[in-house]
Design a protein that fits this description.
The protein is mostly helical and 287 residues long. It contains eleven helices and no strands. It has two domains: 152 residues; 117 residues. Helix content is 79%, strand content 0%.
Length: 287
């Protein structure tokens, strides 16, 4: 069942989209629809922190795409017979960019949209294509500015802080499960330490993405961000213990027993640290 924080975020998203459509309608601007498109595109993850980082990537990708499109527009204006060749290359690059960083994808999409408009104006040499590039940039910039303004001064950081806190507690629970297994002297593992380390890494993927974007979403250090960073450090140490446990299986029995005993003691200290919610994880045995 969706949490209250997620339901509030849905209402915020709907409000932003409606506001952007209303502004586009009021302005009666030919490219005004791109204001709503930009807001809708960057708000897609529903995460306050991720959307702010996405808006940053979108403006960078849009600027880069418009610069490339301007160069190609000038070239194709006098060499329009190459437009099909450029289109084929662009289609190939677009397929590659889908799997890359969002800013590269937006850059290629921007070039494709602008060149499509350029193709409709060939072989004319009017100012129309250049004015389209300028208008698109202004519309995208307006949409991103609208989103950032509402997100920062109306919605605030509460949603981002709660989201990061929830993700941190979920990861702490997964780490606690691994520490419980490591702290048992005679446990029969269902998976090797390497496999469990890989599982923990996969489980933490969304947390890492959220943590990397938290600096943009929260704006300033806070309790939730400090706790998330401590848990992330703890995660790396638990993964190291899991890998050490796996490596110990290859050692002679006497050495294997010593290594496992050392790992067990460290795991117990880490379990005690993670069970102290009001104190620093690092200061309570995470070393």
């Amino acid at each position: 069942m969706p949490s209250l924080n997620f339901k509030i975020r849905i209402l915020q998203v709907v409000g932003l989209i409606v506001l952007s459509l209303l502004i586009a309608q009021i302005l009666q601007w030919d490219q005004g629809l791109w204001i709503a498109v930009s807001v809708t595109a960057i708000i897609g993850p529903f995460s306050a922190s991720l959307t702010i980082e996405k808006s940053r990537n979108r403006i960078i990708g849009t600027i880069a795409g418009l610069l490339i499109a301007t160069v190609l527009e000038i070239f194709l204006r006098y060499n329009y017979q190459f437009v099909f060749l450029v289109g084929i290359v662009l289609a190939y690059v677009l397929g590659f960019a889908v799997q890359q960083n969002y800013r590269y994808f937006i850059m290629v999409v921007t070039v494709a949209i602008c060149l499509n408009f350029e193709y409709m104006n060939l072989p004319f040499t009017s100012f129309e294509p250049i004015s389209f590039l300028i208008a698109r940039f202004m519309a995208v910039l307006t949409g991103i500015a609208l989103f950032l303004l509402i997100q920062k001064y109306v919605y605030g950081t509460q949603n981002a802080r709660v989201e990061l806190s929830e993700s941190t507690h979920q990861l702490k629970a997964k780490i606690a499960d691994q520490l419980f297994w490591l702290s048992q002297a005679a446990s029969a593992p269902e998976m090797s330490g390497i496999d469990q380390a890989m599982v923990l890494t996969a489980q933490a993927a969304s947390f890492e993405e959220l943590l990397s974007a938290a600096d943009f979403g929260l704006g300033a250090p806070c309790r939730e961000l400090r706790m998330a960073r401590q848990v992330n450090i703890l995660r790396h140490r638990v993964i190291s213990l899991l890998l050490d446990r796996s490596s110990a299986e290859q050692e002679p029995l006497e050495m294997q027993t010593k290594i496992k005993s050392l790992i067990q003691r460290r795991a117990v200290r880490l379990r005690n640290a993670i069970g102290s919610p009001d104190q620093s994880l690092i200061a309570n045995g995470a070393m």
